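Why should sequence recovery work at all? Because a backbone constrains its sequence more than one might expect. Tight turns favour small or flexible residues, buried strands favour hydrophobic ones, and helices have their own preferences. The token representation captures these environments compactly. In the example below, the structure is given first.
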């Protein structure tokens, strides 16, 4: 979105990153790691990572995409975790009850499954939850092995958890998504002042 960090979009004045960290913390998720790439300095400057005692994890190769970010984050985790939840920072409506529902569903999953993915009206959503064994298998694979690739290789071990809650599908990838969230919530979803391109453009015009 204009080469700006989507996680710093503010829903009703609170950044999506802050909302996500609050939801995870209130749901009892610990430790929490935040994988950072191109915008690491600006995101850390925002302060949410420090306020919620999350661990910043720098991805040295952010151009390699989501798989690279996932593998970087998994490598930074303690090796003895039984359950790992992987969340996206651009899902504006994920809250603590949603996280708790995911974790409870994972705890009650079929015995032969190792990874839970929420399914909304037949479509896959996020966050996903998986066992420590899945972490080890992903990291033992090639650099192209991420959660999606693991699911494709082990479809029988994936618990497709059906849920009616569209918040597990809702994310912000473009301006249309941003406007849709505003319409859905009735709240403003906007950039902080220094990342507002229209404000920056006005400053440029004023200088000229």
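From this structural description, the recovered sequence reads:
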């Amino acid at each position: 979105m204009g080469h700006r960090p989507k996680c710093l979009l503010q829903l009703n004045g609170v950044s999506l990153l802050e909302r996500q960290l609050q939801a995870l913390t209130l749901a009892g998720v610990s430790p929490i790691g935040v994988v950072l790439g191109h915008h690491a300095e600006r995101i850390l400057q925002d302060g949410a990572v420090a306020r919620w005692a999350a661990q910043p994890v720098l991805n040295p190769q952010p151009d390699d995409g989501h798989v690279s970010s996932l593998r970087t984050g998994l490598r930074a985790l303690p090796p003895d975790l039984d359950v790992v939840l992987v969340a996206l920072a651009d899902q504006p409506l994920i809250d603590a009850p949603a996280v708790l529902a995911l974790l409870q569903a994972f705890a009650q999953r079929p015995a032969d499954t190792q990874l839970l993915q929420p399914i909304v009206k037949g479509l896959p959503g996020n966050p996903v939850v998986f066992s420590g064994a899945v972490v080890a298998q992903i990291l033992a694979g090639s650099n192209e092995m991420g959660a999606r690739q693991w699911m494709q290789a082990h479809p029988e071990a994936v618990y497709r958890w059906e849920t009616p809650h569209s918040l597990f599908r809702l994310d912000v990838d473009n301006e249309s998504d941003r406007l849709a969230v505003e319409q859905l919530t009735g709240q403003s979803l906007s950039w902080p002042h220094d990342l507002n391109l229209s404000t920056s453009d006005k400053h440029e015009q004023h200088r000229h």
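A few observations help interpret the result. Strands lie at 10-11, 14-15, 33-36, 55-58, 83-86, 115-120, 123-124, 128-131, 158-162, 189-190.
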